[in-house]
Predict the structure.
Amino acid sequence: MKQNRDTLLAPYLALDLTNEKGLLCGKILCDLGAEVIKVERPGGDPSRAIGPYYKDMPHPEKSLFWFAFNAGKKSITLDIEKSDGKAIFLRLVKMADFIIESLPPGYMDQMGLGYSRIKEINGRVILTSISPFGQDGPYKSYKDCDLVIWALGGMLFLCGDAGRSPVRISFPQSYLHAGAAAAAATLVAHYQRIIVGQGQHVDVSTQQCVEWATAEIVQIWDMNKRKASRTGQFRLRPTTGAKLREIWPCKDGFICFRVMGGKAGAGFMNPLVEWMDKENMCTDYLRDRNWEDLDLGRVTQEEYDLAEEPIGQFFLTRTKAELYEEATKRRIQLFPVSTSEDVSCDPQLEARAFWIELEHEELGEKIKYPGPFAKFSKTDCGPKRRAPLIGEHNQEIYMKRLEIPEKELIVLKEAGII
Amino acid sequence: MGELVFEGLHVVEFAWLAAGPFMDSFLAHYGATVIKIESSKRTDTLRTTPPFQENKPGIDRSGWFAKYNQNRYGITLNIMHPKSRGIVEKLIQWGDIVTESFAPGIMEKAGWSYDEISKIKPDIIMISASSQGQTGPRSRMPSYGMHLTSLAGFVHLTNWPDCDPAMVYGAYTDFIAPYFGIAALLAAMDYRHRTGEGQYIDLSQYECALQFLAPVLLDYEINNRIQQRAGNTDPYAAPHGVFRCHGEDEWCAIAVFTDEQWKSFCEVLSRPELTEDPKFLNLMSRKENEDELDRLVEEWTRKLGSEEVMGRMQNAGVPAGVVRDNEGVFLDPQLNHRRHFHKVNHPEMGIHTVEALPFKLSDNPYQLKRSSPCLGQDNFHVYTEILGIPGEEFVQLSEEGVFD
């Protein structure tokens, strides 16, 4: 592919002290070309213990979670809680442009590595702190996990079937929102640094990030004093109480489709009706209905059901791939409820060369990874190598960059500092 | 202290719906001048999407639109009108950044592809935030967030193993892509600062969303495993779920990962004997008997309010959180302490609430200084003051329908 192109953030160095609550931030900076050094505690970062694993072999250097969110980074081991480790860390701080951490609020201060200390060493550095609830406030010391923040941020209540308990997305999402927001926030601070030459402290709240994913629910309460609810496969129209289906079963799974009116709706309802007609599965109602006049805010459940019933029957006769293929040709807004297998085989991603292969020489194979999140006309984006092994870059960073003599390095290793 | 990071930066926004304007809000809230271009024939769909202030529908009354369009100048322009060409040229000359989130092909059809735009201003940075990217067989397929949420694989992973997949509320992918988009834009701005060169960014919201499922995708590539819906369970914790509390649709999430948390948890329930019970002795046994354990937890939570459950668990160091509904989110003490919500005053809607950005910079606060624009509200100011079109010409062009 594109070789030897410029990378965007090539001049900058980031120290990544995060765990699973912030790994994505450094991954994004790394994809954008920054040099990102993951600082792991001796023995390896705790997030290496998150499965699943390569060929289901639990091992700190085979975690797929680790692979995914550390691809492209370098790794050094360093115990920053010990005074010798701290001293080495502060030497790295001098060279760094970004430091990212996701320790409990106040913990960096306790270690003597809070922003005030960091600033003394390097006034240009940007310290980005990712925490569950932010650095201040009544919940700042609350114990958290994905489910708890998803609950307090408002997303959990909104998903699942009516009448059953709220349910989360099975793959934890909260900290990914925070990690991605943190990368954006860090670069806002970076832009300011370009102008004034000073770094600052960026404080990202995971709960606030999750709240941003709840669409308009706060406005629904603020403006209409109405509770938003979870409605499973449906969308509820508050004006009529009608339940409009969004997830439909088909022959081999599910698809996503919404009956719509207006100009936009008619643009794909008419081709759907034509298609069903061609397959002899149309009804008089569907054929005679003027879709442009359909107002979903007013349509009754009874009338809506006249559309849903035959459309649902039609979808059941075809697979999601067949439906998606033909819908694309006819420009009908119908999309599959994809599994990871469907995503892996999606011709759209193939055509855009989305996937990339990274060499895992330690495993003797190349692995297919999700590729860049954006395509730039002049510069590269995306990971250039697999995630690092534990302390893989100790030599490079400690001996070449910091010029620590080999003898000293051995002592530090024996003392459990690196 | 206190100056706005992007003061003096000019953004030409052709973006609509949620993802594009959310991305641009990072620039707008930190002081960039953002001109939002709409057509009065085809307004931003969010303008006609509820909720409306006081439940009265109106083009300038949508809370959805307000949330994503603070700090903008709003103008109307018919970019298909032949005389709009010179005006878009002026906008581009004024701009540092152009953002758009139309279906691929629309900007080209209007004559405003990146190639055309960069002829007018070579160092411009332009970002197109589309559903599936500018290229490929499905690039021109229009879609909404709910479609991409299904396509990317989130819906398949939402619900209990014995249930059909459930929709993820809202337009989930619309709230993922903007973070990647703004990071991409800011990195491109750093690059321009160093090299003097602008560029074009093709952002696929689908490809951004897949970053949030990367380990699930690797699990398929490497282990051939198709991950399935798992409800609220977690392989490393039990109990781990939401439990019904006293009151209607009241729930509290509770998670116990470590032996220490398990001990504290049993103390909160006044059931210390559970720590000795072979069925619940360690994580493996608790996972094995998770259903029984969940019933036992719910027997206790049902008698208490969700706040009470959260408070008692948190006091004992056990992760727990009330499952907040939208009223609960609005009143949440932590979010309010963080000033997550702001009251803004709008000429048509009056005082209403919008969210602030989810982070703070120690030296440069953001500002909410202009409420969301009414349709075409800033036409006169933008066209005559900012772009310098003489008053007479402005009137003439208005009459010809260029500003429709």
The first strand of chain A starts at residue 6 and ends at 7. The first helix of chain A runs from residue 23 to 31. The CA atoms of residues 242 and 300 of chain A lie 6 Å apart. DSSP finds 17 helices and 16 strands in chain A.
